[in-house]
Design brief:
With 213 residues, this protein is mainly β. It is built from two helices and eleven strands.
Length: 213
Amino acid sequence: MLKLLIISLFVCSVYGYFTLPGQCPENVQLQEEFRLADFYNKWYQAYHYSSDGSNQNNCSVLELQTRPTGIYLNQSRVDRGLFHRYSIGKLDIPTSIEDAARLDVTFRFDDAPRRLMNRKYPFYVLATNYNYYATVYTCEYSQLINKHFIYVWILSRNEVLNDVSKELATRSLSRIGVDPKKLVKDDRSRCSPKYFEDKQAEPLTFRYPVIIR
Ligand SMILES: *[C@@H]1O[C@H](CO)[C@@H](O)[C@H](O)[C@H]1NC(C)=O
Ligand SMILES: *[C@@H]1O[C@H](CO)[C@@H](O)[C@H](O)[C@H]1NC(C)=O
């Protein structure tokens, strides 16, 4: 009973995140011959797009890390202008070369009900030249309301993305129907927040659709 209550509270709270009609874009062409090894090291989030219009963090940095148990994605950022936070997810590496850019990342939520504990999200690389820019997106579909959510990362090797790289990075957005004008530039002017406590927290860039059976 309690479990049901928790799940229904959860459903209500995620409901509003899914605003785009129908399913996630299909047959999207991703980066060809994607090389994960060249994707390592620091990426700054230069711009982002969140289809629900939320804008909760800036100063985001993404970085892949190899550990004995696998490859992990560390998303660090300043939440709500106040808190330094990071989220660690485990990367699933596609087995076939054609699907190399079709990554997935799984986050663990220790406090969630058991069936919601491990949440896997797509983390698809639309385009990258490894040295300057990368365009990555995630899409989650909610069966319950037949709507989806998209988050796009425009990543840059340098804190500032030059105009040519920005143009190259945003060109691929048409493949998922995202208007580049809707990108939000990240503010890196105050990246030393009031509470610099290097603490792990839930990622704010993915939305979990609860499946009702
Ligand atoms: C994740 O990255 C941030 C920023 O580089 C760092 O402060 C933090 O310690 C990292 N977390 C882990 C577990 O490596
Ligand atoms: C960072 O993001 C928050 C939104 O959560 C915003 O209030 C703040 O003005 C942004 N910019 C800086 C420099 O903190």
